[in-house]
Structure formats: structure tokens, C-alpha cells
Design a protein that fits this description.
Length: 255
């Protein structure tokens, strides 16, 4: 099973690079990118999982309802993208459920940061997809974590996919910077080993991020965004479908 997921949040990433961006622009950019994603998924008849912050959902409830109406899974990405406390686990779940009218069973911590599994279980989540089981200086040091799905403290853990031997992360940055043929090769190799693939992206990647003066992003973040991202992502889906691989929602796979 190919498990595509998208982390939808207020687009606060420019703050990490010393740039200011209004809350209205944060929401608008995420809305624009999500609409592009939904259009792509509908075109290819693919279902996916959307991890969403409560803050974004409250600002753009129509997008949340469209995600559900299109048959995708809605999961929690916390209440805010840049602020967290344990109480947000249940609070974000309730907000998403009230807006969407569906049960929320999955959680992913913002920026794949550590989170207390007992608190996740207490909040009523069935699975957590917050581990990137690789080493990335300044971000992740999870080489001691299992590479594939496991259970811990009553919660199913679904780490992001990394390659079997060197644990090369197959996350969004790899997709932007590796040649598409090489990225696809790594994905297929990992799929054959694990029997599934769990890869994640963000709506803002599907918008034009080329303005360094506005966003402050280095070249490896700006590369292949906007229209190029839409084109490359379509080719990736076509490649997987050409191999006869199926796509699905995370909750249907793990629960």
C-alpha cells in the first residue's frame, strides 16, 4: 500500500528563516496548495491522509469538509504548528471532528518532534505517525527507533519511510532534490522490503516558493516547488500506478 499524507498547517515556515508573513497569507498559501493536491488526487483517483492543525481548520473549514467529501482521511497535526502542550492533543481532535463530522484516529506531531505516547493514547488516538527514523543534523536522531510499523504503549506507530540499509529519508526534501528516477527507485526498493510506503508532503510545496526575499528559503527548499512540484508529483503517482501499486488511507492500513 502507498500511504500518501500531507501536513496542513498555518504556513509559518518563513519564521524559521527570519522572515515575517501574515496569518492571512499563511492560511491562503496552505489553502492554495491543498486545492492543488486535492485536484491531483481526484484526477488520479487516489485517496490520502491529511494531518491538519486545528488552527488551520478553524480558519479554512471549507477545505476540511472538502477533504472529507472527497473520501480522504482527516487526522490531527496538533492545535498550533509552532506551539504545543499535551492538552492540545484532545483539543485539536475535538475541533477537527466538530468541523468535519468524522472521527479522527491519527496524529502526527508538528515537525515530527517527540510526543508522549501515553498522552496520545489518553486523547483517544489509535495511531501516531510522528517518527522519522533517520539521522538528520539539527532535526532528527532516531536511528535507535524501529524503521517500520510497531506498537508502543497501546498506540500503533507508523514511522515515515526510510530506505532499508542507510535509512535515507524519503520525505519531502528528498523528493525535491533527488532526480525523480532515483527517488522513485528508492521508494520502490523500500516498498518491496516493507510491503508499504509512508511518505509525506505539505501544501505549500505545491505553490511558488521561488521568492527568496519573501520567504528566505535556501535553494534546496525552493527547488521544484509550484508547477514543477505538481508535475513531478503526477509523474510519481503514474509510476506507482504503472507498477500496479495501490494507494490508501493510513487508518484503513493500520487499524
Amino acid at each position: 500500500m502507498i500511504l500518501l499524507s500531507f501536513d496542513i498547517e498555518e504556513f509559518d515556515m518563513p519564521f524559521e528563516y527570519g522572515k515575517e508573513i501574515s496569518f492571512e497569507d499563511q492560511i491562503q498559501i496552505s489553502v492554495e496548495g491543498t486545492e492543488a493536491i486535492l485536484s491531483l488526487l481526484k484526477h488520479y483517483n487516489v485517496k490520502a491522509t491529511f494531518f491538519c492543525t486545528a488552527t488551520f481548520a478553524l480558519a479554512a473549514p471549507e477545505i476540511i469538509r472538502k477533504i472529507v467529501d472527497d473520501g480522504h482521511e482527516l487526522a490531527s497535526h496538533g492545535y498550533y504548528h509552532s506551539k504545543f502542550e499535551n492538552a492540545h492533543l484532545l483539543q485539536s481532535k475535538k475541533v477537527l471532528e466538530e468541523i468535519s463530522g468524522v472521527e479522527v484516529s491519527g496524529f502526527r506531531m508538528a515537525r515530527m518532534m517527540p510526543v508522549d505516547e501515553e498522552e496520545i493514547a489518553k486523547a483517544g488516538y489509535k495511531y501516531n505517525s510522528s517518527i522519522n527514523p533517520t539521522f538528520l543534523p539539527g532535526r532528527y536522531n532516531n536511528l535507535d527507533k524501529p524503521r517500520t510499523m510497531f506498537e508502543y504503549k497501546g498506540v500503533i506507530q507508523l514511522p515515515a519511510s526510510v530506505t532499508p540499509l542507510l535509512r535515507i529519508p524519503l520525505f519531502w526534501l528528498a523528493f525535491h532534490n533527488f532526480p525523480l528516477s532515483f527517488y522513485t527507485h528508492l521508494c520502490l526498493k523500500t516498498y518491496r522490503k516493507d510491503g508499504y510506503l509512508n511518505i509525506y508532503f505539505h501544501p505549500w510545496e505545491f505553490t511558488d516558493l521561488s521568492d527568496k526575499g519573501r520567504f528566505g528559503f535556501p535553494g534546496y527548499v525552493r527547488r521544484n516547488t509550484g508547477g514543477k512540484m505538481v508535475e513531478r508529483f503526477g509523474k510519481l503517482i503514474e509510476e506507482f500506478k504503472g507498477k500496479g501499486l495501490e494507494f490508501g488511507r493510513i487508518e484503513s492500513f493500520v487499524v
